[in-house]
Design goal:
By secondary structure, chain A is of the alpha/beta class. Chain A has helices spanning about 1-35, 45-50, 115-120, 135-140, 185-200, 220-230, 245-255, 280-295, 310-325, 340-350, 360-375, 390, 420-430, 440-460, 465-475, and strands at about 55-60, 70, 90-95, 105, 125-130, 165-175, 205-215, 235, 260, 275, 300-305, 330-335, 355-360, 380-385, 405, 500-505, 510-520. Classes of the chains: A alpha/beta, B mainly alpha. The interface between A and B is large, with 61 and 55 residues.
């Protein structure tokens, strides 16, 4: 019995490992095949979606023309000898996707060490080489526009702050798993970086975003901060971590790391190193309260998601409502994971609510509208962040007539389809991440603007790129026009660049802007 | 905030809402209890199996356009296959090992299935679930609340599953074998019962039930790789109220839990109140059920 039993167990263990490996690798393959554009930039995608909050390298440079083969080296060793396809730790093949000319995926994906390098969170230091090896031809075929910034403008490297001779590395913390899906914000930043890289990068360097999954967990967000710091990043750009931004803004700026973009949580308005692009949530609350008066809202019921930064929004909204003489009949807090809103809706109806003012995430809105429809509670709804097409599909019929406000241009407004700013934004995401185009929303617009602000500041740095010189350059931005908003101005001290909103309304599944530049 | 403003007129409606919510928990818990009863393994992968199987239904019906019932059938097959795979590949070789080891293995499956589903279908919340039953419903005048046919179906299926499994265990040869294995696997083996086959069957049936639960529940919650796992955490609580053995008590526990989560909203607008009351109630219930010298709950 002894030896046969041992053999049987060995066989079972082997089979188990085989099945698991097949499942994971097959899944990865299927995901790659299902998202052909994504492979351009998702080195380490498995790590990105792993539950351990792994950091993956979004190698935006791979989308450019020069990515014949990508080899892993130390971050500070840029410019070393090209490893080529047979290199010991080639991290990925890449496609000549620059400018939308999707060349075949080539490169060194099968080289020894490819898997381990791609999957090793925190150690991803991909370096793009000049065309060489079999991938060079495909990459060269997609050669895009000339570089942004001459090589002579490069300035010295700052490898300890994410700037090597080849790359400028920034970090981003996103809820990639869990109840909130912020992958679209991550991919929006990457899409803009891809676009810039396809045009040659900035100051002879490619832009790269290291992402980390905070999974709607503040402790994991903090782990992300520490891991990104250990990976030598220049700054945080375009992050979206609802439960992590409030504490991590304080932590990261305390470490001297500038943060650009984000959800405009209160902490981002109280640090000289935080550069929000969106109107503050407090201002959202104020705008909603006063806009309620314009809409003739009476006896509203208020529903607010319970997250760690929401109090200023709620207080500002209630204050503005009081100033307008509107008294809510009920105010309900809900958890972000709340499955069924029937109890809320039944309670609102019992309280005599004649309208709903809501401050929820796009996915919670779906459950709210579903409960309203199920309970046949058709009243006017005013919220913010309602304009997310992919989520709207789950909102049902009761979204029709809903009001929202947005501190940027409404990208889903058919009247703005030919607007050059909207076209650039949609076009970049559509080109590099077509599956995310329907998921774009107010928050992805904020991160798009953040990425543009970051690149503009980089271009204005006269010499060595460091965190300090980046901050100095950001503080020189006066009336910079990134598109989607009229202008951005920063300076020394705390920053609050965006005070204006657009009123939008859902009419037969389309979001239409009917008032612009409502400033508070 | 309107906290602690009690409105007794809400009670009938909230009772209905709580029972409907409890039906979701009960449905998720029944398969869990079956597996535990027979194999002694607390299957933390139950929610992940439900999620993965539901995504296959999504692939078949929502993506490929096949009828919803066909997607559900595929989900049931995938659920059963996953249950068999988990038992055959990873639980059976651990025969004789402490239960904790097996629990850890199921957590491993949870992670593998969640990651695999995220890679295949995307770890996003944009998927449209398969609607087997209409979301339309009927109005209960006394409660002033509308119950959807899909919600009603969830409650009915939970009850039917509980009764069916109870009948299976009590009146069929397979059920007798399952009970024998649950009582004492070694003795069952002496009686000529194939313990491995019976245990595998329980995993298959339990996981198939998870698939049904997943397909029915996902239209009521967010459809992603995460939310169903949260539901199953509540299902664990319902199962604990049933002492992980009694199916009627498990269903009752599900309804109790649903009510415990709903009633606090009658008098409080704060989001944490429901969890606070639920936690207190569960502790109280478990304290009563598992008190030293307490009457043993009859096992079905």
């Amino acid at each position: 019995m002894g030896s046969s039993s041992v053999r049987e167990r060995i066989a079972i263990v082997f089979m188990t490992l085989s099945v698991v490996a097949t499942l994971v690798l097959g899944g990865a393959l299927a995901a790659q095949l299902g998202h052909p554009k994504d492979r351009v930039v998702q080195i380490g995608a498995a790590a990105a979606s792993s539950p351990d909050g792994g950091v993956s390298a979004g190698d935006q440079a791979a989308a450019s023309d020069t990515s014949g083969s990508a080899s892993s080296t130390d971050a500070g060793a840029g410019g070393g000898e090209a490893a080529g396809a047979g290199g010991p730790a080639a991290v990925s093949g890449s496609s000549g996707g620059g400018g939308g000319a999707a060349g075949p995926a080539t490169g060194a994906a099968s080289a020894p060490g490819a898997k381990s390098a791609a999957g090793t969170a925190g150690k991803t230091t991909a370096t793009t080489r000049a065309p060489s090896g079999p991938a060079a031809k495909g990459g060269a075929a997609a050669a895009p526009a000339p570089a942004t910034g001459a090589v002579g403008d490069k300035g010295a490297d700052s490898p300890d702050e994410g700037v090597t001779s080849d790359f400028i590395t920034v970090g981003g913390i996103f809820d990639e798993t869990g109840p909130v899906d912020a992958t679209v914000e991550r991919d929006t930043v990457r899409a803009y970086f891809n676009q810039v890289n396809a045009a040659g990068g900035v100051k002879g360097r490619k832009l790269r975003l290291l992402d980390c999954d905070s999974a709607f967990d503040p402790s994991r967000a903090h782990q992300c901060s520490q891991r990104l710091l250990s990976q030598k990043i220049l700054s945080i750009v375009g992050w979206t971590s609802p439960s992590g931004e409030e504490p991590e803004t304080k932590f990261l700026t305390g470490q001297g790391v500038p943060t650009i973009g984000g959800l405009s949580v209160p902490a981002q308005f109280s640090s000289p190193l935080a550069y929000p692009t969106m109107a503050s949530l407090e201002l959202h609350g104020t705008a909603m309260g006063h806009h309620a008066k314009d809409l003739g809202v009476q006896a509203p019921g208020v529903i607010i998601v319970n997250v760690n930064f929401i109090a200023p929004l709620q207080n500002a909204m209630l204050k503005a409502l009081a100033e307008e003489g509107i008294k809510p009949v009920d105010v309900e807090q809900v958890d972000i994971t709340k499955a069924d809103y029937s109890d809320i809706i039944v309670k609102m109806r019992a309280a005599g609510a004649k309208s709903i003012l809501a401050g929820l995430d796009p996915f919670s809105y779906a459950r709210m509208f579903q409960a309203m429809e199920r309970q046949n509670f058709k009243v006017p709804v005013l919220g913010f962040g309602l304009d997310k097409k992919s989520a709207n599909e789950a909102y049902g019929n009761f979204i029709d007539g809903a009001e929202s406000l947005i501190p940027f241009k409404e990208a889903f407004d058919p009247a703005l389809a030919n607007d050059p700013d909207v076209a650039e934004y949609f076009g970049a995401v559509q080109r590099y991440y077509p599956n995310q185009a329907k998921a774009l929303d107010v928050y992805s617009e904020a991160q798009w603007v953040a990425a543009k602000v970051f690149v503009e500041a980089l271009k204005r740095i006269p010499g060595q790129i460091t965190r300090q010189s980046l901050v100095t350059a950001l503080n020189t931005l006066k009336n910079f026009q990134p598109g989607l908003i009229p202008s951005v101005t920063y300076g020394p001290g705390n920053h609050d660049p965006n005070h204006c909103f657009q009123w939008i309304r859902n009419e037969k599944s389309a979001w239409k802007t009917y008032a612009t530049n409502k400033c508070f | 905030m309107g906290a602690l403003a009690f409105n007794s007129h809400l009670i009938p409606g909230f009772t209905v809402i709580g029972i409907v919510l409890g039906g979701v928990y009960a449905l998720a818990a029944v398969g869990l209890v079956l597996i535990y009863r027979v194999s002694g393994v607390l299957n933390f992968a139950h929610g992940a199996v439900a999620m993965f199987a539901t995504f296959t239904a999504y692939e078949v019906s929502t993506v490929k356009g096949a009828p919803g019932w066909m997607g559900a059938l595929v989900a049931i097959a995938v659920g059963a296959a996953l249950g068999f795979a988990i038992e055959w590949l990873t639980i059976r070789p651990l025969h004789g090992r402490p239960p904790l080891v097996k629990v850890v293995v199921t957590i491993g499956w949870l992670l593998v299935l969640q990651t695999a589903a995220g890679l295949i279908w995307g770890a996003t919340a944009y998927h449209q679930p398969v609607h087997l039953v209409s979301r339309d419903g009927f109005h209960l005048p006394g409660a002033n609340v509308t119950v959807g046919y899909d919600q009603l179906t969830t409650v009915i299926v939970a009850l039917v599953f509980a009764l069916a499994v109870a009948a299976l265990l009590r009146y069929t040869t397979l059920g007798n074998a399952m009970r024998a294995v649950a009582d004492n696997p070694d003795t069952a083996r002496l009686w000529g019962i194939s313990v491995n086959r019976v245990t595998a069957a329980s995993w298959m049936v339990g996981s198939a039930m998870a698939a049904v639960a997943g397909v029915l529940i996902t239209p009521l919650i967010a459809f992603d790789t995460f939310s169903l796992t949260v539901v199953v955490i509540y299902a664990f609580t319902a199962a604990l109220i049933g002492r992980l053995s009694s199916l009627p008590m498990t269903v009752l526990g599900g309804f109790l839990l649903g009510l415990a989560q709903t009633y606090p909203r009658v008098f409080s607008s704060l989001s944490g109140t429901a969890d606070l009351v639920t936690f207190a109630l569960v502790l109280l219930t478990l304290g009563v059920l598992f008190r030293p010298g307490g009457r043993k709950v009859r096992v079905v």
